[in-house]
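Review the following:
>
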Amino acid sequence: MKNKPKLLDYVRREICLRHYSIRTAQANVSWIRRYILFHHKRHPKEMGKKEIEEFLSHLAKHRKVAASTQNQAFNALIFLYRQVLNLDVGDGIKAPLKEHLRYVKRLHDNELTKNLGQVYLPYALARKYPTSDRQWAW
């Protein structure tokens, strides 16, 4: 008798059916695994918007991840709930993420006024885009 596939097996199957890249698949599975472990191995069906917000807040406040990283985790969780579990956690979950991004943008702008907030760029890239080291996208 075969074991029933586990949740992450279903995630991998759904990603494969949608022809996502291998790196996207690995990243999504990794973020979903971290989300489950963060909530002490509770099944995502038992959780929802509140737990997603807690996880994303933890990433921002305690793990100090970049906004783009937090967004990647958010998209992986939305994929899990919408495509794998067929549950809608609602668009209201984006509000805390957008508020956090506004906060980080204000910090970035504040640092730029103090001549901070720059990143290192390799020489050719720095020559090609001389102001890129101060742009919000980095």
About this structure: The helical segments are 7-17, 22-38, 49-61, 67-84, 94-113, 123-128.
